[in-house]
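Supplementary Methods, section 5.1.

A reviewer requested that the exact input to the structure prediction be made available. We therefore reproduce it here, unchanged from the version used in the analyses.
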Amino acid sequence: MGLQLVDTHHLVASRLREAGQVYTKGRRELVELLLHAGRPATVPEMMELHPRLTQSSLYRNMADLENLGIVRRVAGVDDQTRYEFTVEIIGQHHHTICTVCGGVADFFIPATAEYNLETALDEALSTTGFQTKSHRLDVFGTCPDCS
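The structure derived from this sequence is encoded token-by-token as follows.
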């Protein structure tokens, strides 16, 4: 995650301003929570990190941020909805998903490997007529805590 806190706040504030939305204190706190989590986080996890936040406010603000393309939902192997910044905010990254505890973590690959992956996907799909816009890579296995 190459972005600093100030850069992320600037990107989010800019996106909200373009949509005629206000970058409220609550939204600012959510951005900081997601940054400090360093991985996709559930609403209960965010509430645990910042107990003053109310669940209804969290869900409402996450829905607003999702609708504006600032965050997106990430599915794991459990029923928990996790939120993370979109690729436009955090950069291209992928996920490890633990099949034991359901934990989801981000990982980044070097730019050359990312390029090779995109090239391989384009080549594999070249005969289908499918036009790719982006990709996600989820790797399933067992996290260090569950090993």
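The mean pLDDT is 89. These observations are discussed further in the main text.
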